Amino acid sequence: MNASMKEIRYRFRETYRMLIVVVLLSIAGLVIEFVFAYMYSSMILYTDVVHWIVDTALEIISLIMFFIISKIYRKFDWSVFILEYMISIFVILVVFGFYILSLIEYVSAHSTSMMEPSTTNIYLAIITVIGGIITFITFSIEKKAYRRLKTEILKIDSTHAIIDVIVSIIVSIGIVLTALTKNLIIELVVVLFVFFVALQTLLSLAKDILKSILGFESNPHLKIELVSRLNKIVSDKVVLGNVELKKIGSIYIAKVEIYLDPKTTIGEAHKLRETVNIICREVSELIYHVDVVFYPKKRYRKVRKSEKQYSRKY
Ligand SMILES: [Zn+2]
C-alpha cells in the first residue's frame, strides 16, 4: 500500500472515530430532553425530542456508512445500505406518526378547555440550553476534525450543528416566553417551528433515499473525466469495462470493471487496483469508495454474449 492510500485509510478511520463521539453526544442530548419532556409533559420539549431523534438517526446512518467505506478494499454492499436507509425512515415515520397524534390531542385538549399552554415551567429552558451546548460541542469537534481530515461529511454535519445551535436558542427563548405569558399561541408557534426544522431534515433524508434507489444524480461530467483518466491504465493486457458512479448524500461510490489477461499475476492485479483507487480519488475527493472488479480478458466477449442471450430469453 502506498503513502496516499495509507493516508486515505487513516482519514476515513479517524472520521469514523469522530462520528462515534458525535453519535454518543447526540444520544446524550436525546435522553436528557426526553426525560424532562416526559416529566413535565411539555409539548415544546416533546417536539425538540423528535428533532433530536431525526438528527441522531441521520448521524447513525453516516456512522455506519463510514464503517463500511473505511474498509477500502472490501466490496461495497449497496443492498445493506438501502436496507439501513429504509429501517431508519421507518423508525422516523413511526416517531412522527406518534408525535402528530399527540399534537392533535394536545391542540384539541388545550384549545377547548382552558387555553393554557403545556409548558409552564420557565426552568425547562435550562434543558434546551444544555441541548444547545451539546450541539455546540458537536459543532466544534466536527469543525476541528474537518480542518485536519478534510472529509466532506464533517463539514456538512458541522453546518447542520451550528444551525441547530441557533434553533435551540430560539426554542429556549420560546420556552421562557410561553412560561411567562402562559400564552397557548406562543407555545404553538414554537412547537410548529421546531416541527418544521425536524421535518426539513426528514424530507432531505427521504430525497436522498429515493435518489440512491432510483440511481439519480450521478454527476455526468465527473464520470466522463473519470473514464478518460482511467483509460490511461489500458494496455494490451488491460481492458477497461463498465464504470459506474453512484451518489449517496454528498459522496460518491465508484464501481470499475476491468478485463485482465488471465496470465496477469495477483501482484500485478493488486497494484492495478491500487492505481485505480488513486486515480478515482485524484479525480474527486468526494469519491469515497471504489469497487474494482476483475474479469478474465478472454471471457470479455463471451460474458457480453451470454448476457445478451439471457436478456433476450426473458
Ligand atoms: Zn437538526
UniProtKB/TrEMBL annotation:
<dbReference type="InterPro" id="IPR058533">
    <property type="entry name" value="Cation_efflux_TM"/>
</dbReference>
<dbReference type="InterPro" id="IPR027469">
    <property type="entry name" value="Cation_efflux_TMD_sf"/>
</dbReference>
<keyword id="KW-0472">Membrane</keyword>
<feature type="transmembrane region" description="Helical">
    <location>
        <begin position="52"/>
        <end position="69"/>
    </location>
</feature>
<keyword id="KW-0812">Transmembrane</keyword>
<feature type="transmembrane region" description="Helical">
    <location>
        <begin position="20"/>
        <end position="40"/>
    </location>
</feature>
<keyword id="KW-1133">Transmembrane helix</keyword>
<feature type="transmembrane region" description="Helical">
    <location>
        <begin position="185"/>
        <end position="206"/>
    </location>
</feature>
<feature type="transmembrane region" description="Helical">
    <location>
        <begin position="161"/>
        <end position="179"/>
    </location>
</feature>
<dbReference type="GO" id="GO:0016020">
    <property type="term" value="C:membrane"/>
</dbReference>
<feature type="transmembrane region" description="Helical">
    <location>
        <begin position="122"/>
        <end position="141"/>
    </location>
</feature>
<dbReference type="GO" id="GO:0008324">
    <property type="term" value="F:monoatomic cation transmembrane transporter activity"/>
</dbReference>
<feature type="transmembrane region" description="Helical">
    <location>
        <begin position="81"/>
        <end position="102"/>
    </location>
</feature>
<dbReference type="Pfam" id="PF01545">
    <property type="entry name" value="Cation_efflux"/>
</dbReference>
<feature type="domain" description="Cation efflux protein transmembrane">
    <location>
        <begin position="19"/>
        <end position="214"/>
    </location>
</feature>
<protein>
    <recommendedName>
        <fullName>Cation efflux protein transmembrane domain-containing protein</fullName>
    </recommendedName>
</protein>
<dbReference type="InterPro" id="IPR050291">
    <property type="entry name" value="CDF_Transporter"/>
</dbReference>
<keyword id="KW-0813">Transport</keyword>
